[in-house]
Every structure is written in C-alpha cells, then in structure tokens.
Amino acid sequence: MVNSKLCAILNLTADSSELYPLTYNRPIAALPFASRYRIVDFALSSLTYADVDSVAMFISESGRSIYDHVRSGRSWKLNSLVNGGIFTYSQQNWKARHHHEHPFEDYYYNHRIFLERSKAQYVLVAGTKIIANVDLNAFKADHIASGKDISLIYKNVPGDRVGKNHPNERILKFDAHHQLVDLIENSDKPDYELVPASLNMFILSVDLMLEIIQKALERQQFMELDDLVQFYLLDYSLHTHEYTGYAANIRDIPSYYRANMEMLNHQSFASLFHTHQPVLTKTKNGVPTYYHERSYVRNAIVATGTTICGEVIDSLINRRVYIAENASVRNAIILQGVQIGEGAQVEYAILDKNVVVEPGAVIVGRPDQVVVVAKNQRVDASSSPV
C-alpha cells in the first residue's frame, strides 16, 4: 500500500501589527470569529477531515492564548496517545533574534525532527490568518494526481480585496495555458476584476521539504517554513488547486471587521459553515442566552451565556456579554465578557474581552474607520471615543 499520509506545519507567526490592539497578546490565529470560533479552528478542522494526526504549530511569541484554546487537540481528534498529536513551538520571534547572535545553531532543528518523526509522505505547510473551509483530501489527491513537486491553493478574489504592501502575500500569474509561471507581490496586482490570490497553503513531499530546508541551511537563509517554500517555489514543478468557497485574509482591522460582518449574510455564512466539513472548535458548556422582554435583536449572531436587555442590530455578540436596558449595539463586534451599561451606544466598533462600557457612554465609529477598544478597558461617558 502506497503511503500517502499527510502531516502539517502551521505557522502562527504572521505580522499582526495592523491588528493592534486586538493582537497585543495573541496571534492572529487566536482572534475570535463569528461569535464562537477562533481563526485557527479552520485550519485544524480541515486537517481533522484529512485524517492528519501530526501537527506542528510554530508560534511567534508565548502562545498562551493558543494553548488555552487548543489544549490537547481533543476537539479536533488530535490527541492521539499512540502517535501524532499537536506539537507547539513558541517564541519563534525570540529564536530568530537569538539565531543572529548564535548562527551555529540549527534554526530548523524542530522542523526537521517533526518531519522525520511524523512518518508521513506529504506535508501541508500553511499560514493561519486565512479563513477558509478547505477540503484537504481533494487538495492532496489533486496534488498526487498531478505528479508535480509542489501544489498550492488559490482563490479568485475581487481586486479590491487584495491588500497592498504585504510583502509575503502573493498573486498567481498564469500563462495562456493556465500554467503558473510566477508569483508577484500584491502591490503589483494586475488590474482585473478577479485576482488569483494565494491562500498560503502548500503540499509537497516530506523529502522535498527536508531538501529545501537543507538548501536554506547551506545558504544561511532563515525564515518561516511557509515563506521558505514560497521563496523556492519557482525552482520546482508546480500545480495549482482552485478553492471556490468563502475565504478571507485577516491582515488588518478592516479585513477582520469585514469578514465577521459578512457572516451576517446567509450566503457567506452557508458557504463557510454549511459544507460537508463542519468547522470544529473547543467545546464550552454555557447557559442559553437570555432575551429580556423589552430587548430587540435583528440580524445578529449571539453566543451562549449572554444577557440582552437592550437593542442589538447587525452585530456579532460573543459569550457572556451583558447589554443593559436602553443600550444600543449596531454594526459592532462584541467579544467575550463585555458589559454595556444602560443607555450606552456602540456603533461601528470592536470591543475586546472584558471591556466595560459605563451607562450613557457613546462609542461610535464609521464604516471606514471602526473604533477598537482594547481588552479590559473601561469607557465612561466623559471619555467616550466618537
């Protein structure tokens, strides 16, 4: 029997500065999404349905928020006691800085050991700031059938959705026969209505991944594995796999806000969640949401454990939120544990965990300039950001 086992290396190391203050203490992958999920859930769920049992996660900083969410990996059936499991490697930013001072150390040691011990023939290398429900079984089968060295997945997206000045994001360039001939920086994107954007997911053999790592070591090139694969991509034969479902690239506050708000559209929500692969997440038991008799809720996603006594329109409400009487929440993302006082107004805003909005406070942004209130902050009527 031919070994077609797949392992995975996920990089949680993307630059998150354009998502501050939401990412001060968490990687992009740990950001809440659609009132119930975390962004990393989409990658882990896809791996579950592809029967992947060995996953390595490389995290830029401490990774506490990821550890708290993922734990043993049980929610994604990645808690094998026999072989495999989730292996986490934190402080990658520190490691990169340390390596410049100690260049004799093997920067890719943990990557190589993971790959060698996985006993897999193929490896998925991916970032974790893309929201997509990818069928990895189809992707892997397509790669094997192609006979090519490396396969990458892309989606045709509207040109105005492609962010500029993000050096690691790439647009695919095809020839007349739809063969991939180059990857160009998104700042040089062609002026088309739809643009083929890389989803930063690659499948290649473990042997080839080890070969690329060895090549990088010999040339003193040290970068995250998804960047490394992309760097050497054009040295090998390539195959492309088109993804046609919902996808969002979470690179900054506007893209994070927009992706959440798109979940209020039934078509977008169904495209992402109502597939043959339900998205898995950490299970949390909670009491049902309480709706006061004078509350008013329209077009909202509301998680469990929440109390709504006021008005909620076109918004996403996470767990254990309290919205008092006569308070109004519109076009907003309210994260876990937020308390909104009586008569307060929140509109075009993102409130991070445990924010307290005092009675009568006003937090009003604009569609093109969403207000973000950092975790654990208290907003009173005199300091309301408008």
From TrEMBL:
Signal peptide: none annotated. One of its GO terms (molecular function) is glucose-1-phosphate adenylyltransferase activity. Pfam families: Hexapep_GlmU, NTP_transferase. Gene3D superfamilies: Hexapeptide repeat proteins (2.160.10.10), Spore Coat Polysaccharide Biosynthesis Protein SpsA, Chain A (3.90.550.10). Residues 292-363 form the Glucose-1-phosphate adenylyltransferase/Bifunctional protein GlmU-like C-terminal hexapeptide domain. Coiled coil: none annotated. GO terms for biological process: glycogen biosynthetic process. Residues 18-158 form the Nucleotidyl transferase domain. Keywords: Glycogen biosynthesis, Nucleotidyltransferase, Transferase. InterPro entries: ADP-Glc_PPase, GlgDAde_trans, GlmU/GlgC-like_hexapep, NTP_transferase_dom, Nucleotide-diphossugar_trans, Trimer_LpxA-like_sf. Belongs to the bacterial/plant glucose-1-phosphate adenylyltransferase family. This is Glucose-1-phosphate adenylyltransferase, GlgD subunit. It comes from Facklamia languida CCUG 37842. The lineage of its organism: Bacteria, Bacillati, Bacillota, Bacilli, Lactobacillales.
